[in-house]
């Protein structure tokens, strides 16, 4: 193994946990300042669903407008009446700023990346909107741990398209067969690594969920990214024994 590509969200940083903390702050705001009761939780639940189904096209809209609209729609669906853009903006910016504050690289993850980088080249490969992903990268201050950072929203195609993996290989001067992809999403991280013919794919399955039969099958499954150094050693040993 000469290079490892890492996904960002819920692989290196707990994006889902940070988002939940943001939602809790919005619930507090709506209950204390605006005297919403259970509607506050309903609104946040609705926004969460909208985020999970989000289809973003940078050419036609900006992420701030789109996500403010999620809040505006959720408030209107729950409370009725006229759209309240001002409140939607207040909720969105509170959720976003709280979320970014809680996006951190844990000390043990930093230590692991530092050690790994002595042996192999490291690249961060994340899908998503350019502005959103760059804000997260800035918030968790992870730039110094990687040889290169590639954001899908800045490329012609995102994971699982092979082209973005070949672009990463070219950046590092390595062949796909020398690289390992590590991520938490089967449909993008694992399928993409398989599509591009990487040496191995590693699925981070924190919650021990059973994938669907139709899902792409990773080469390796671990419950934490911290298991990676030992796994990489065993991959290298297997290769040298079979050589």
Automatic annotation (TrEMBL):
Q: Pathway membership of this protein?
A: Amino-sugar metabolism; N-acetylneuraminate biosynthesis
Give any single GO term for biological process: N-acetylneuraminate biosynthetic process
Q: Can you state which reaction this protein catalyses?
A: N-acetylneuraminate 9-phosphate + H2O = N-acetylneuraminate + phosphate; N-glycoloylneuraminate 9-phosphate + H2O = N-glycoloylneuraminate + phosphate
Q: Identify the EC number(s).
A: 3.1.3.29
Q: Keyword Magnesium on this protein?
A: yes
Task: State the superkingdom.
Answer: Eukaryota
Ordered alphabetically, the record's keywords are: Carbohydrate metabolism, Hydrolase, Magnesium
* Family per similarity comment: Belongs to the HAD-like hydrolase superfamily. NANP family.
Protein name, UniProt field:
N-acylneuraminate-9-phosphatase
Species source reads: Mustela putorius furo
């Amino acid at each position: 193994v000469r290079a490892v590509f890492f996904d960002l969200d819920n692989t290196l940083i707990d994006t889902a946990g940070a988002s939940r903390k943001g939602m809790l702050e919005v619930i507090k705001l709506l209950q204390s300042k605006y005297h919403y009761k259970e509607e506050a939780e309903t609104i946040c639940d609705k926004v969460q669903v909208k985020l999970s189904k989000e289809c973003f096209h940078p050419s036609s809209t900006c992420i701030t407008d789109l996500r403010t609209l999620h809040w505006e729609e959720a408030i209107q669906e729950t409370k009725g009446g006229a759209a309240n853009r001002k409140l939607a903006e207040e909720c969105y910016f509170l959720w976003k700023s709280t979320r970014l504050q809680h996006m951190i690289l844990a000390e043990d993850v930093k230590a692991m990346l530092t050690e790994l980088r002595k042996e192999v080249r490291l690249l961060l490969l994340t899908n998503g909107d350019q502005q959103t992903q760059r804000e997260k990268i800035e918030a968790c201050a992870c730039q110094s741990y990687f040889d290169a950072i590639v954001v899908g929203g800045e490329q012609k195609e995102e994971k699982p398209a092979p082209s973005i993996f070949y672009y990463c290989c070219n950046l590092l001067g390595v062949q796909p067969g020398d690289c390992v992809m590590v991520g938490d999403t089967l449909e993008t991280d694992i399928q993409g690594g398989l599509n591009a013919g990487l040496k191995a794919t590693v699925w981070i399955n924190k919650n021990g969920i059973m994938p669907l039969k139709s899902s792409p099958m990773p080469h390796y499954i671990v419950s934490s990214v911290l298991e990676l150094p030992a796994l990489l050693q065993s991959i290298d040993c297997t290769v040298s024994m079979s050589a």
